[in-house]
C-alpha cells in the first residue's frame, strides 16, 4: 500500500479545532522562522480555528494513521490555509489536500504566500500556480512582503 493510500481527506469538524490549531502553530513555527513570535495562546488559536476558520469557509483535514496531519481551508476561490505537521512534510499529503481544494474550485484558485516562504512558493509552482502580484506587506498582519498566486484549470483557460 502506498503512503497516499493511508491518508484520508475528510471535511473538518468542530471537534478537530484543537488539533488543527496545533498543526497550524507547529507548521508556522517550523517552516517560517522569520515570522514575529506567536502572541496568541494555543487556546486562543483553537477558538480562532473553531469560530473563524471552520465557519467562514470549507476546511478539510488529512488523516493518516488515525491522526490529523494537515489541513486546508478554502473561502470562495481563496485558499486561506494549507498547513502540515512538520514531521510529515514532503510525503504527498499537501498535494492530496491541494487536490481536494482544487476539486471544489472549478474556475481556479488564488492564495497569498509570504515572499520569504520559498518552500511553499516552490510547492505551488510545481502545482501550476503563477504569480499575480506582489505586495510590501500591507495586507497581512505580519507586515511581511507577500505575493498572490493563481491556479487556473486548463479547461477554464
Automatic annotation (TrEMBL):
Residues in N-acetyltransferase domain copies: 7-150
Xref: Gene3D superfamilies: 3.40.630.30
Keywords for this protein: Acyltransferase, Transferase
Pfam families linked: Acetyltransf_1
Single GO term (MF): acyltransferase activity, transferring groups other than amino-acyl groups
Highest taxon in the source lineage: Bacteria
Presence of keyword Magnesium: no
PROSITE patterns found in the cross-reference section: GNAT
Presence of keyword Transferase: yes
Protein name: GNAT family N-acetyltransferase
Amino acid at each position: 500500500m502506498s503512503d497516499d493510500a493511508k491518508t484520508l481527506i475528510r471535511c473538518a469538524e468542530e471537534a478537530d479545532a484543537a488539533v488543527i490549531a496545533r498543526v497550524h502553530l507547529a507548521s508556522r513555527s517550523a517552516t517560517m522562522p522569520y515570522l514575529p513570535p506567536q502572541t496568541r495562546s494555543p487556546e486562543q488559536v483553537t477558538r480562532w480555528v473553531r469560530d473563524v476558520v471552520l465557519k467562514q469557509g470549507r476546511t478539510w483535514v488529512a488523516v493518516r494513521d488515525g491522526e490529523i496531519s494537515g489541513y486546508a481551508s478554502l473561502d470562495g476561490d481563496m485558499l486561506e490555509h494549507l498547513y502540515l505537521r512538520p514531521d510529515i512534510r514532503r510525503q504527498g499529503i499537501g498535494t492530496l489536500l491541494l487536490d481536494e481544494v482544487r476539486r471544489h474550485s472549478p474556475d481556479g484558485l488564488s492564495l497569498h504566500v509570504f515572499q520569504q516562504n520559498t518552500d511553499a512558493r516552490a510547492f505551488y509552482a510545481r502545482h501550476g500556480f503563477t504569480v499575480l502580484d506582489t505586495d510590501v506587506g500591507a495586507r497581512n498582519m505580519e507586515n511581511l512582503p507577500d505575493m498572490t498566486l493563481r491556479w487556473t484549470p486548463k479547461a477554464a483557460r
